[in-house]
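Homework-ish question, so no full write-ups if that breaks the rules, but can someone show me the predicted structure for this set?
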Amino acid sequence: MPLLHQVEERLHQTWEASRRRQYSILSRFVAEAERAGGVVREAVDPQAVGFSIAALAKAQGITLCQATDPDLARDLNLEAALIEAGISLATGPSPDGIVHAGMGVTRATAGVAETGSILVHLDEVDARLLSMLPEIHVALLYLDTVVDSLEEGLLLTRYLILRSSLLGRPSYCSWVTGPSRTADIERVLTIGVHGPRQLHIFVLPPMGKGIGS
Amino acid sequence: MTRQEEFRRRAAAALANPRIRENLGRFGIAYRTARQNALAVLDYEGERARLRRMKEDAIERLPELARQFVEAARRVGAIVYEAKNAEEANRYIGDLAKAKGVELVVKSKSMVSEEIGLNHHLERLGITPVEADLGEWIIQQAGAHPSHSVMPCIHMSKEEVAGVFSQALGREVSPDVGLMVRLAREELREKFLNAGMGISGANIGVAETGSVIIVTNEGNGRLVTSLPPIHVALLGYDKIVPTIEDTAAHLKLLAKTATAQHLTVYTTFITGKTGAAQVARPREFLGPATGEMHIVLLDNGRWAMRDDAEFREALYCVRCASCANVCPTYRVVGGHVFGHIYTGVIGTVITPFHHGWEAAAVPQEACLLCRACVDACPVEIDLPRMIVAMRGRIVKQEEQKKKAKGIRRLFLDAILPNPSLFNLALRLAAVMQVPLTRGRTVLRDLPGPLKRLTRIRAMPAVAARPLRSRVAKVLPARRDSKQTVTFFASCLIDQFYPEIGEAVIKVLNRYGVTVHFPKAQGCCGLPAYYEGHKETAARMAKDLIAALEPSPGEHVVTATPPCGITLKQYIPKLVKGDPRWEGRGQALAARTLDFSEYLVGVLGLGEETFGEPAPHKIPLTYHDSCSALRGLRLAEPQRRLLRMLTRYELRELDEIGECCGFGGHFSMDYPDVAGEVLGRKLAAIERTGAAVVALDSPGCLLQIRGGLLKRGSPVQVRHIAELLAEELD
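A: Not a homework solution, just the prediction itself:
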């Protein structure tokens, strides 16, 4: 697959170059994501993130929180934190939960600093719905997956989609830039329409695995 | 009914609803600032050139890219159906829904589905389509059509929207926007969960991967394409681009120009269908876990548009609606008048290909040809050029059907092209007007069939003696003459404002320029060209070339920018391909300069003032004519000349570049619409507190001076040439 290899090679070069400036890229990402209406927090210890999420859920009166998979919940120590806060946790495919969860926790595949977007690339429908149906979407983003420009973000998106597409596999990837919004009635900006009303992004320390892996 | 009469009827209905122009007027002002701020972060010209190149390439390679797209989409399991027309697309989707037992369909925004009338078709089959985009849902509940492609119900007030909500939900809903949005979320959530099919449009199709890209803010697009077991994506061939990386400029500019965002909230890349949601939906809809994706690729006139050299560039459109947002007449009448199913300027231009020429003939009348849309278009589509091309074809069709109006044709095709006949007609008018003018130079109210001309503004009387009778053939310079110019007067200066012509000659003579005035010159042909009488315009182009060619002036100077555009841009196009005239047309274009451009660019004026500034300067504002600003790209020379004046200080308008609503025949045919546009201009003038309005185009002068007179305003309106001549006294 020479085409895919070429795209991968360019992506790798971009990633190498970005790593040298990852903190300046991060500060751009934070500014842009917040300008779009998202809330970004930097976390030093993933195990502490569960408590931040639980505190957030409690403050918003959430009673059911759902994460895409048990691994994610474990990485963040989410279950213990939520139990302490008196909030239920569902993980993995829990069809009935998805429509009732007030908060959905997912991973983000990457971030784009120029636009403050996160890439939510979840092919499993039910996992993906956790970034769509609940009022609050919490996304976990690794610092070293944030690219600088929209063009670099598109290069990554092309790589991810092409990789599946060449194998005949469907995929579903969204760039999410802030919470859902409308201005359809008298142009009054209103946050939270069919998608989440709040978007919280936790930036975790570098994963060190390379982008798109 | 002629198309002019029908347009008047439709416009009157829109004007009867002040809500439309209040909402659109307010929006237009807010949009301008928000858009500027959003675009400030990038190199607008660079990005739009990149987007233009990408779209040009994609449409050029469309046959190959479309094949690639279909193959790639099939590789990931999508079922692709290529529909030739609306009927085929509707039949495919309707039959599919029937075969799968679908009763409820949720839709995210798809203008193509409006184009083909899909909802109507589904309803006839007993299937319920529900629009999920908030604006589209409101429009659907109200039983109406979108009036704007990005904000479908921009013409409605929140009180009207609350009425729609109350009716749809069967209970009283107060006009609180936040509340209505919450209610819509609840109401539509049920629909998302219960629908057996989701139908989406697509902003882009990607040939390399078979992906469709959907851009939405509300999140409905992702739900429509994830929750129901079947997803149907409906898109035109024109949306296909080579790769995901090619979409950079498209995504940036679409968000910034459509909604002044850096990026739309959700940019979703859907490549095949990954399965069906297993959420708590009624069990009968649970079905198998594998979902289906169908892609309906629609032609419906797009391939014909691609093959039509005059209209191909309409396929580059990214549907940002900028052309509507900045359009002075759209902002008065809205998309139900300026548009058919597709709204605004681009919507009207593509209408003939999707819905036939009949459907486009009336809406296209709304165009003033002010060119504001060209600058605003992120793909730099030359919409006014296509409007003129449309008019040409519509006029031809009307002639064949004998629908053309006799007097208009007589004027454009017989009187205007004949300088002596035209002069004679106006001399006759000058005599006949005497009982009305009684010696005055303005007519405040004309009687009878001419009443329309003075509805919104006073009209100038026809000059007792035209410029051609007042000046000699050669007007020598005051001092040793090195420079010579040929003055092209224009009909307005010749017959209505000879004093402007005299001022031009005086200024030129004073600066050592000998002015030649060839008496054979007539009209440049612009009225015929803009109204679609292209053959007449071509004939007039040749007459004018022949009239000006022997005159010895090194440059041809005009003080009427719209005619300047004709000489510099339209005449070369009109005679192109005619070996006897092509080179001569180009020579005339190369020789022609606007008055301000000549004074500043050739004579080097504008470096210093005429003398000591007066102790108390009079506030003056400047109105840019659309023709100079956007047609000839001249804004600075005029200001440099104004800064030479000792008695005036320049105060800029707060809406620089807005049209005054003259538009040649437009303000004569549609004074009520033109009057609204003029009203905005006059209000902007009043806000500056200026005592004098300077301008560079006699058409704008007619409109603005006439409008101020009609209002009884003491503000004076002067052509730059007159202000300069005054300083030289």
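Now go work out the reasoning yourself. Hint: The first strand of chain A starts at residue 39 and ends at 42.
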